[in-house]
Amino acid sequence: MTCLFCEINEGTQKSLSVYDDKHCHGFMDKFPLSAGHLIVASKAHSETISGLNYQQRSHLFDVANTLANKLRAVEPKIKAFNFVINDGKASGQHIPHVHLHVIPRYGFDGWLLLLKMLSNKINPIYLLGYAKSIQTIWSNMVKEQTRSS
Predict the structure, then answer these.
(1) Which of 14, 18, 9 has the alpha carbon at shortest distance from 38?
(2) DSSP one-letter string for 104-139
């Protein structure tokens, strides 16, 4: 059985990528619960978080936090985030590969979020817009760091 997230990490499956390094990959969730919903997937294949070492776990959360800050820069209407890991099938994990959901919250969006969880639908144009915005911010940050080095 092939793993969807391993295929995305290897580039054999398409995704709207917003971040990629040798340890993890950040991309837009195909079935977002809110506008800007991201997934940060480990490059090391493991079904559970305990299968990753300390550095891999720490890096996954650091990248998720950085991407959340980038989302805040793109969309000032974001009030908070849910950082969610479903760890194992019984927890609701649909793809057996460690991944962290970064779900933007917009304040009084509880009912809207529930409806989207039930329907798993959001306008795909939003996905592309958020992905492009985060990519631009990330690129500018890298250029700025290169100039100051």
Answers:
(1) 18
(2) EE-SS-HHHHHHHHHH----HHHHHHHHHHHHHHHH
The contacts found for 104-111 with CB under 8 angstroms, 24 or more apart, are 104/34, 104/35, 104/36, 104/37, 104/68, 104/71, 104/75, 104/78, 104/80, 105/34, 105/78, 105/79, 105/80, 105/81, 106/34, 106/35, 106/77, 106/78, 106/79, 107/77, 107/79, 109/34
Encode pLDDT of 75-129 as tens digits: 999 999 999 999 988 888 889 999 999 999 988 776 666 555 555 555 555 556 6
Q: What is the model's pTM? A: 0.75
Sign of the torsion formed by the C-alpha atoms of 93, 95, 96 and 101: negative
Cβ proximity of 136 and 19 under 8 Å: no
